[in-house]
Amino acid sequence: MTGARLRIFLPPIALLGVLLLLPAFGIQPNAVRLLFVTFVWMTASIAWNLLGGFAGQVSFGFAVFYGVGAYAAAILIDGGRLNPYLALVAAGMTAAIASVLIGLPTFRLRGPYFAIATIGVSETVRVVATNLEFTGGASGYRITEPRPFNQAEHYYTALIVAALAFAVSLFISRHKFGLGLIAINQDEDAAADTGVNPFVYKLKAHAVAAFLTGVAGGVFARYAAFIHPNGVFGFPISVQILLMPVIGGLGTVWGPVIGGVVIGVIEEEIVAYFPQVHLLIYGLLLIVIVLFEPGGILGAIRRLQRWVRRIRDRQAGKRTADARSKKPDEVLWGAGSGPGR
User: Fold this and answer.
1) Which of 170, 253, 254, 312 shows the smallest number of beta carbons within 10 Å?
2) Which domain holds residue 341?
3) What is the DSSP-derived secondary structure letter of residue 149?
4) 271-311, pLDDT tens digit by residue?
């Protein structure tokens, strides 16, 4: 493996190894639960970034895929109808199908019109799900499994799903499909002139993102054992999924991971202490980041690195200049002066 590839693949592999070994050190169940939630949010964050970060299509409707995945997994898992892991795959596929049905009309729109359309779709699905019998309506849906609850199993499931989502994001970012999405983000018309079909590319990115989000919703539903439409289809879910990549760094591979960690760690505290205004806090956080650091936390880290590098280069240049500066006798008599003159 070359040095460049080693620098790319070594950090995520090392981090995955640490997280795989972490439960063996006997951490508290509440810490395991917090990490589980963080992995779920991380998966959804990475998924949204494929569409909103790489392709620049700002969607406020990812709660639809999260909720569809949660209900699909819940219905298939309930009572042991299907193996839980097959149910998670089916949940992702159901969400991907829903993404195509939503994307066909909405991707005819651009900019704020697309964003407004996704809000409308999300709210419509939430209201419909609240009045359907097979979803349990407003009362919600309870999941029963024949096997006993195993927190470690849920932890590893969420971790592996997050790792697979990261691998998908890394693969897309380094191949033709990802370059096409970035081209659409920069200039959709110019991308079309170079042979990229924006409509098809956006539909594909939407489907992949929806699949990952649906699996994340299914993982959460299985752990919670109870879901309801306002919880998994609610607009706050869409806001959180959108906010994570923005906080971490849009259009990057590591940015959504950082944003998922931030939201996973602080979200519970914000909701606990400010239950009535937590959306206002998220909105203010989003405004601050957009105004002062559009690149998110990752952008701020890179800016700090550039600043440190400039200082280091300036100091190195000064030392070089001092080493090359002439001695007083060389300035007075010339470089070729002999001793004693």
Assistant:
1) 312
2) 299-341
3) P
4) 777 777 777 777 787 787 777 777 888 888 888 888 888 88
Cβ–Cβ < 8 Å for 218, 70? yes
Length of the chain: 341
Report the C-alpha gap between 297 and 258 in whole angstroms. 8
Q: What is the pLDDT of residue 323?
A: 63
All residue ranges of the chain with pLDDT < 70 are 1-7, 318-341
**pLDDT (0 to 100) of residue 177:** 94
* First-to-last C-alpha distance (Å) of the chain: 60
Q: Are 136 and 252 in contact (CB under 8 A)?
A: no
202 and 320 inside one domain: no
pLDDT (0 to 100) of residue 298: 84
Contacts with 185 (C-beta within 8 Å, 6 or more apart), sequence order = 54, 55, 56, 251
* Same-domain status, 44 and 144: yes
Tell me which residue has tokens 């509440």. Answer: 30
Distance in angstroms (rounded) separating the CA atoms of residues 251 and 273:
32
- 275 backbone φψ class: left, alpha, beta (φ>0; ψ -120 to 50): alpha
Which is nearest to 58 in space by CA: 100, 114, 104? 114
**Half-sphere exposure in the Cβ direction for 26 (13 Å, CA):** 0
- Same domain for 290 and 335, yes or no, is no
AA identity, residue 126: R
What pLDDT is attached to residue 100? 95
pTM comes to: 0.86
Instruction: Specify the 3-state DSSP secondary structure of 121.
Output: helix
| C-alpha dist (Å) from residue 210 to 59, 97, 175 | 11, 9, 20
pLDDT of residue 326: 55
